Amino acid sequence: MIKNAIAFFILFMVFFNLTAQSIVGKWKTIDDNTGDAKSIVEVYEEDGKIYGKIIAVFNPEVEYRVCSNCKGDKKDQRIVGLVFIEGLSKNGGVYDGGTILNPENGKTYRCRLKLEGDSDTLQVRGYLAFFYRTQYWKRVK
């Protein structure tokens, strides 16, 4: 009886831990070239889709910049507060089917987000045809 209870408890904790892993939360973005932290992004769910917006930047010179190269309703929006990840859906172990905007050049790419094994690292990948760029963001605790 005690062995069954212990086995149930272990299975419950494993199941709970696997289902608790979510990309929703705050993430620190890391500059590809310097390795320095660039911003804090809030990844959130709305109407069953995943979105991400920049909520803070570490460089004070960027804090009041606008997305001057962006198109449409993003044109001339402030970088802080900008929703730049849009419309991703869960597809197995990844989130895809949406887009990511690079505020530095105003270009939009297909996007895929995936939690790494430790769930404190988010793999962020932007695609253009067969070419892609990958960043690894760290969860803010």
Short description:
The protein has 141 residues and is mostly beta strands. The chain contains 1 helix and 8 strands. It has a single domain, classed as Lipocalin.
Structure, described:
The chain has a single domain, classed as Lipocalin. 13% of the residues lie in helices and 49% in strands. It has 1 helix and 8 strands, in the order H-E-E-E-E-E-E-E-E. A hairpin with a 2-residue loop joins strand 2 and strand 3. The N and C termini lie far apart (39 Å).
Q: Taking strands numbered 1, 2, ... along the chain, how are they ordered across the largest sheet?
A: 1-2-3-4-5-6-7-8
Categorize the overall geometry. globular
Order of helices and strands: HEEEEEEEE
> What is the percentage of strand-forming residues?
over 45%
Helix content range of the residues, please? 10-25%
Label the structural class. Answer: mainly beta
The main sheet comes to: 8 strands, antiparallel, barrel
- The CATH architecture would be Beta Barrel
Q: Quote the distance from N terminus to C terminus.
A: 39 Å
Catalogue the unreliable spans: 3-19
DSSP summary, beta strand count: 8
CATH top level assignment: Mainly Beta
**How many DSSP H or I helices?**
1
Average pLDDT for all residues: 88
- Give Rg in angstroms: 18 Å
